[in-house]
Structures are given as C-alpha cells and as structure tokens.
Amino acid sequence: MELLKMKNIVKSFSGVTVLHGVDLEVGQGEVHALLGENGAGKSTLMNVLAGVFPMDSGEIIFDGQPLTDLTVKKSEHAGVAFVHQELNLFNDLKVYENLFLQKEILTKLGTLDKKKMIRETKELMDELGVDISPTAMVSELETGRKQLLEIAKALHTNAKLLILDEPTTALNNAEIEHLFTIVNRLKEKGKSFIFISHKMHEIFTIADRYTVFRNGQFIKTGNIADTTPEEVTLLMVGGSSSASEVYHTRELGDVVLKIENYSGPGFENINLDVRKGEVIGLTGLMGAGASELLQSIFGVNNADTGKVWVEGKELKGGIIHEAMANKIAMIAANRKENSIIPDFTLLDNVSISSHMLSMRKMVIHKKKEIGRYNRMKEMLNIKSAHGYNDLIVSLSGGNQQKVILARWLNTEADILLMDNPTQGIDVGAKAEIYRLIMELANQGKTILVNTLEIPEIQKIADRCIVFYHGHIQKILERQEINEENVMLYATNVKGAE
Amino acid sequence: MGAENKESKGFVKEITSRIGNYNFVFIMLAIFVAYLIFNQGATTWSGVMNILRHSAVVGIMAFGMGMVIISGGIDLSVGSMLALVASFSVVVFNTTNSVILTFLFAIVFGGICGLLNGLMIGLLKMPPFIVTLATMLIFRSIAQYSLRTTGSSIFNMDGTLSSYDGFYGFGNAKILTVPVIGLVLIVVTIIIVFLTTCTKFGKTIYALGSNAKAARLAGVNVNHTSVMVYVITGLLVGLSSFCWCAMNGSVDPATLGKSNEMYAIAAVVIGGISMSGGKGKLLGVLFGAMSYTIIDKIIAAVKVDALINDTIKGSILLVAVIIQIVVPMIRTRAKKAKH
C-alpha cells in the first residue's frame, strides 16, 4: 500500500524551475532511497513535503488524504518527520527536555512533570534499543547518539514517514550499523523512510526501493534488488563517465615528508615516510587518529613527542604559519565550520591563504589576484552565478570545496593534507576531486587523504594507512586495499604487526 | 505591458540594492535636508564645513570602533580613553611647550591604552565587552584622580606658552575654507578605507569577524589581528585627543568623551556595519558620524532644549537599523513578486 504519493510536483525559485513535475511514491514499511546529485532537487522536494516551501503545482496524497496548502505544522501533524542533516537539537538541554520541547507534560499545579517525561523518554529509548540516558546533557552525546536522538524525537511525534537527510555523514561505521538496525526494526513496525545519501553501499544495504532525480526531473524508480550501484550512479550523472577509473601508476620521487616517533593529542608513535608525488589514504573508525595526525602536522595542535621533517628540514611544530611556509596545506574537515569564511567573496576566499604567506607585501595587487583566481577557476571548474564577487555561501557544496582547494593550490603548497575532502558533496563533484588529486600527484604534489570511505581510497591511493586507537594498525600497499581488508584492521580484528 | 512592468521591477530592484549598499549616504542626506529646512536659509558654506570639523573627534575614534566591530569585538573604553589621553596631553603640552611632542605623546599613549585592551582580548581571550567595560571605568578614573593634585576642575592648556597660539590655531584654522580638523577626518577616512579594502591586514579583520576558526586554519594570525584592531583604535583615540586639545584648549576629564563610545557604535551601525562582525564598509562610518553632528546642528538651529538631543539621536539610530532590516526585506519581496 502506498503511504505517500507525490505527483507532478513543480517548484521554482526566482524564476528558476528547480522541480519540473517530479513524482515520488513511498510504500508503507518501506525504506525509499531518494537519489541524485546535489542540485538534483531532492532537498527541495523534501522541503515541499515537510511544508517548508509551498509548491507551485502538483498533488500530494499522504495516508489516503490529499495534503493541500502544506505548512510545517500540517505536515508534522499528518505524520511526516524531517530529520535534518544539521542536527536541530539544543545542546544545553537534557535529552528528555529536547524530546518534550513545547510538548512538556505538566503536573496539576502547572509545573513540569519531570518524572513522567523522564519515564516516557526511557520507555521510548528502550523501545528503540538505544542506550541514551534521559537526563544526559545533549552536548555530552557523541554525534551518532545525537542522530539517534533526532530519530527518537521524530518517532515521539508519532511520525509515519521519516525523512533521513544524509544521516550517516558524521557517523562511524559502528554507529551506522546501529542506525540501520533501528531503521529495520521500525520498518517492521510499519514506519516508512525516505533515505537521502551519497553513499552507495549504504543505500544498497538499507533501502528497498529507489527513485532517481537529475536536474529537477524524475528519471527512474524501481526496486533496489533489480539494480546495481553502477547503474544507479550512471542514472544520477546522466551517462557521463564520472565513475571511471582515475588511478594510474606513476614514478614516485624521494621522501619529502618524514614522521618519526610522533605522538600528540589523539595519536601515538607514528612513523611514516611519504615520497614526492605519492597519494596516501588514511582511514580508520571516527576518532582513530588520522584526522588528529593531519592537524598536528599542520600545526593546529602541538604534538607531544617526535619529529616531522619536510624536505629534510625539521618543523618546530604547533605553528600553522610555519607549516604553510614549508609548503604544507590542509583542507580541513567540516567545511562550513573550519574552511568557509562566509562573508568573503570567492576571490577573497581563494586568496586569503596566499596573502598570509606574503604579508610583507602589504597591499593587495588586485589584478594579479584576479588573474590567479581565474586560473584556479579554470583548472578546478568552479561554477558560480556571476563571478568572483559572489559570496562563497551561494555555491553548492562541491563548488565550495573546490574554492577551498583553490585556496590551497594558490599557496603553491607541495604537500596537501586533505581531511575528509569529499564530505557532503555530490557524485559528480567527488569524481572531479578524485581526478584532480591524481592530476596533482602527477605534477609532483604529495597528498595525504583522510577519509572514512574506503572505495574512495581504492580509487586514488598508492598506499592506505589504517588507524586504530591512535596508532598505525597497518600500512596496506595498493594491491591489498579492499573494503574487507581495511575494515578488519580498522576494527582490530586483524592486529598490528 | 509586460515589458514595462519588468522594467519598473528592475528599476525598483536597482534602487533598493543601491540603497541597501549605501543607505548611510541617504540617511545623512535626509538629515542634512532637514537641517537646511530647519535652518531656514541661514545655512552658510562655513556652517556646512563645520559639520566635518565637529564630526572629527567622534568620527576618528568611530573608525577604530568600526574595525573592532568587524573583527567581532567591541570597545567600550574609547570615550574614557579620550578623556585620559587628552588630559595627559594637556599636561605634556604645558610642560614641554611642544606641539610635536604633544602629538607624539597622544598617539603613543593612545596606542598603549589600546594595546592593554588588545593583549587581554587577543592573547588572554578575555571577553571584549568585559575588558573594555573595566578599562572604561579605569581610564576615566585615572584622568579624574590625577586632576585632584592640580586644585583645578579642568585641565587647561597654558595660554602664555609660545606654542599655544600655533596649537590652538591648528585646531581652528582653515585651508581654502575647509577646517584643518575636517581635513584630518578626511585623511583618516582615506587611510582606513584603504587599510580595510586594499591591504592583506584589512582582509584578516573581516576574516576574523566572519569565521575565526576558519580564518586561523587558513593561516591568518588571528591573535595578531585581534590585538592590532584595539591598538589601531587606541592610536585613533590618541589622534582624536590631540584634535580635541587643539580645538578646545582644555579638557574636563569628568565629561569629555562621556557616551562617546555609544556615539561611535551608533556611527558604525548607521554606517551599515553589522554588529555580528565580518561585514560592512568603513566608509559608512564617516557618514554615520556626520549624521550625528548634523542632528546637533539642527537642535541648535531650532533652539530646543539640548537635553532632547539623545532622544533624537536614539530615534535616528532605530530608524537606521529599521531601514537596514526592511530594505533587504522589500528587495526579496520584490524578487518574489517578480516571479
């Protein structure tokens, strides 16, 4: 039985049609994957369903009832719950307070009935099989738990359909597994899900059916069992060969980055030689130490012991400017928080780091600056509405990330540390970034990529370093890199030698 | 019909976007027109030029405030700092009989006061509101306390000194009908606008206020920038103090600069700089400061009680903020209506 039928939905913003009459049908007790590149119209359609944007035309039938003039309240009341990518929780409130926000249970005296709310929260958590204390502060929960709490919040409103918008971006593999167990359990109870993700293996693990959008148009819907990741990817990108092999063997140069007995916050006793032109994939469970290692090399944090040499020169460490002066760049994780300067134009965002390396020349040479920007724009294929004066926040995630890449290429760095560089960007932009990484390696740049996505490492890396609890568990050569192998080491099933 | 409609919408959009970017000019012009009306033809060229001169003391320090606010901070101490630096400048002038030494003293002493704020805020990461609230109390108190020993209620420049006429003359002289102090304000405007738009240091101020964490990871020395904005503010307050002495010849540490931090913040806000940091044009500060001077002139022209002054200034500030919020709203409405 169909729970949701959206027919011929049209939506436009400022004269630009974003949805050209798309359809979506979700059955009772079904996990439905909604697929498409960034800008394909997935989020817009979900916002229409959640009552955030009014649609221009079309028809929505939910649970047998037509929904017209949707508002957020109406949609919620009907049984649609939107679990957002950015968590909408109040960090300084307790778990049960978040759950009962604006739905507080009162005693006869009109004061809060904390006992009852805590008890109900406990029951809900037990039902979900989630081990979260109702009285814990939300700020003390890990990201994975917060995500589960969001879902609990949705269930608490008696939602029939939960929209999960990239719920796994911030989760480690164990947490993802837990999330999927819960989704499956709820599915059996008849709840439906719309699942938005860029990670193919997740979609093929959890989803029953799928719908693909491209450029705001409906492309195809079908059963997951009848298709393959390759076919779906092809549908999403529209036949372009973005999933093709990019890796090729190259001559590597001398050792340019040498790390010896290096310990610091989050990692210990790291020994590593990296050669010029090499691409190294770093991975492990979230918090295993790869990200922390990159941060210490770049001087964000102070290391405790050990040494780092760049081209034979020892770094003092703990000073970002020193790392930059030695031609190290870092594309930080969490673009929005750590990379983007939201009030800056594209030009300023690209130029800022190279300015910092040439502070002696105080005045900005605008013409040169624009010339360099244009070269970067061409090389990285940065797409913006008007030009270099656009604000960076007006760009799509993929283009924002390219701007950040441009910022660091503009410093003419030789060693690029990339911390989760494809986070939250679509398949097409991801493929462009892989290609670019290979191209840069070809030009002799040395690249360290930290990512939780193993297929990504398979695409580009010469070697893969698997972290476990802060130390290097295993260094895999290219031919040894496969998902199974990496996971065995990352979860300590196979030990360090 | 359709084409005409489109054209008029385009026109509306054009106007609203221009006003959105430069509404500080319109606010000042509106107040200026009010001044011309209330003054009933008594407006003279030198009266208009005096607007510049009388905007200088608050205007110069407001440029510092503008940079501090863009960097994400606040400096409540500028008014008291003005009293302190100007008081001691008078003492220095009376003992040295040298305009140059007085000038250097005012600038350096202002810079040191600013450095004090900057070190606590930029290096020790203390909250700027609290730090400058404390130094606001301290600076004025020191100025008043040191006056105690002189037996007078104000610091008076010694009119019998040989340099006095030159110093006082500087504060009241004109070049081609333009007051010299007004020119100082213009020069400061040019320097600050250049510093914030054309130099790498200027970009770091905006980066710091926009996203301090990202700025640091992009290689910006955020500690240095946040100390420097307070130091520059101190230097500018030093210059303001020097101008005050040249213009007035005396300093009352109990009243000089009182509420000036608020006027400076208001000039910054009218100038279109966002209190949340990261955006805004320093050029607006000049217009914001002049707007307030013109209000003073209007009140003098209509001969109402000067105590109503702050009611009007406060109201203008509210109107300016409303315009800054409403104009973009109308613009988005117009955009929506178009489709």
Task: Walk me through what this model shows.
- The complex is a heterodimer of chains A (497) and B (339).
- Chain A has helices at 42-49, 72-78, 95-99, 114-128, 143-156, 173-188, 200-206, 229-237, 290-297, 320-325, 335-338, 346-357, 366-380, 397-409, 427-442, 454-460, 483-490, and strands at residues 2-13, 16-27, 31-35, 57-62, 65-66, 80-83, 161-165, 192-196, 209-214, 217-223, 255-264, 267-275, 279-284, 305-310, 313-314, 328-331, 415-419, 446-450, 463-468, 471-477.
- By secondary structure, chain A is α/β, with parallel strands linked by helices.
- Chain A has 2 domains: 2-237, Rossmann fold (3-Layer(aba) Sandwich), CATH 3.40.50; 255-490, Rossmann fold, CATH 3.40.50.300.
- In chain A, helix 12 (346-357) runs parallel beside helix 14 and helix 13 (366-380) packs across helix 14.
- The longest helix of chain A is centred in the middle third of the chain and has 16 residues, at 173-188.
- With 339 residues, chain B is an all-alpha fold.
- Chain B has a single domain (24-35, 45-338), classed as ABC transporter involved in vitamin B12 uptake, BtuC, CATH 1.10.3470.
- Helices cover 77% and strands 2% of the residues of chain B.
- In chain B, helix 3 packs across helix 10.
- The longest helix of chain B is centred in the first third of the chain and has 38 residues, at 2-39.
- The two termini of chain B are 16 Å apart.
- The chains are: A alpha/beta (497), B mainly alpha (339).
- At the A-B interface, helix 10 and helix 12 of A face helix 8, helix 9 and helix 13 of B.
